[in-house]
Design brief:
This protein is of the alpha+beta class. It has 2 domains: 8-85, Glutaredoxin; 88-203, Glutathione S-transferase Yfyf (Class Pi), Chain A, domain 2 (Up-down Bundle). The chain is built from 10 helices and 4 strands, in the order E-H-E-H-E-E-H-H-H-H-H-H-H-H. A 4-stranded mixed beta sheet has the order 2-1-3-4. Residues 5-86 form the GST N-terminal domain. GO terms for molecular function: glutathione transferase activity.
Amino acid sequence: MAGRKIPEVYLDLLSQPCRAVHILLSHSKVPFTVRTVALRKGENKTPEFTRLNPMQKVPVLVDNGFVLTESVAILKYLVTKYSIPQHWYPSQAERRAKVLFPRMTGSAVDGVKLERALAELKETLDRLESMFLKRQPFLCGDDITLADLLAVCELMQPLGGDRDVLSDRPKLQQWRSRIQSALGESFDQSHSVLYKVRENFKSKL
């Protein structure tokens, strides 16, 4: 459409939900422009960004003047607006209801919070294995959905502190591998910043 602008996404790729949005856009070949907002530098608290999102959180989507400021809403909007394959967020009410959305923080790696989260993680991982992945390859069935995308970005986060929380869980490792295979290079591209944080962490040991 003439005069239509390419969507802009305001992201910090150290943030789990930001990576989820970035992966979906990249993998689906939707044209977009990234506006980096470095949370550690307080760029989310500038007057310019605060006017865009008074909650001072990322991600933010600006699509031809329309602004969305919550990760799950952004993902659902993108699937609907840009004809992204339906398996990501099925149109059928019953299947859509099964797509779970893990709680997103919109924050970068935080050592204290990370330790607390790791202490509470075992029960969640047990549930993923015993309930969601017991007889199916992805969390909601035979196809990858937004649930898998959001969950895997959450579970990749501890890599910033050089911790693979799936290292002793073969079933979840296989699930992660299936997601990586389905997403191709967009997965590693979106996690490249997190990988660098891991390398920096390891170099200081």
